[in-house]
């Protein structure tokens, strides 16, 4: 017998397990963004497309505001992004975006992020960006100075 959708457990009331960066304290940096009415859909919760905008705000804060994590003459291009939707975001309110660097490659940087509302993880994400030289539009390896700054924003492997 197939369960009706109304028989499914309410994921919103079930706490999400703590591993894999699903606790706000797992992240070395956090920012808070206000949820706007225009972020919502007809069901009254934040549209899933807007989760990507919140995650981008967290990456931008870490890359360009908190630290200047790029070499001169370079910019970042996103190579991959995944989002696991674990719950809903609601308006009115705020979302806390946790961001940390999970891995540093030769010219790429992998992030782990989480979105939180009222202390509950509603989404987790991984993404990779590549540092690109603006003139050549080719990947450019990180300088040692940039790598040193990146270490300050690394996620502790024991936590995530």
Automatic annotation (TrEMBL):
User: One MF term from GO for this chain?
Assistant: fatty acyl-CoA hydrolase activity
Xref: InterPro entries: 4-hydroxybenzoyl-CoA_TE, HotDog_dom_sf
Which residues lie in coiled coils? none
* Record region (Disordered): 1-23
SUPFAM superfamilies, per the entry: Thioesterase/thiol ester dehydrase-isomerase
UniProt keywords (A-Z) are:
Hydrolase
Pfam families noted in UniProt: 4HBT_2
Report the superkingdom from the record: Bacteria
Checking CDD domains in the record gives: 4HBT
Name the family the entry cites.
Belongs to the 4-hydroxybenzoyl-CoA thioesterase family.
The protein's name: Thioesterase
Q: Species name for this entry?
A: Novosphingobium colocasiae
């Amino acid at each position: 017998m197939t369960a009706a959708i109304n028989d499914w457990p309410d994921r919103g009331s079930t706490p999400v397990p703590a591993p894999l960066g699903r606790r706000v304290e797992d992240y070395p940096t956090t920012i808070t963004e206000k949820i706007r009415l225009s972020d919502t859909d007809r069901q009254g919760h934040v549209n899933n497309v807007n989760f990507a905008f919140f995650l981008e705000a967290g990456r931008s804060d870490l890359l360009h505001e908190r630290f200047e994590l790029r070499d001169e003459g370079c910019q970042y291009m996103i190579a991959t992004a995944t989002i696991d939707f674990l719950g809903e975001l609601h308006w009115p309110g705020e979302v806390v975006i946790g961001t940390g660097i999970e891995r540093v490659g030769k010219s790429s940087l992998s992030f782990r992020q989480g979105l939180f509302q009222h202390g509950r993880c509603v989404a987790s994400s991984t993404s990779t960006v590549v540092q690109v030289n603006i003139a050549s539009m080719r990947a450019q390896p990180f300088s040692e100075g940039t790598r040193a700054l990146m270490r300050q924003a690394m996620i502790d492997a024991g936590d995530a």
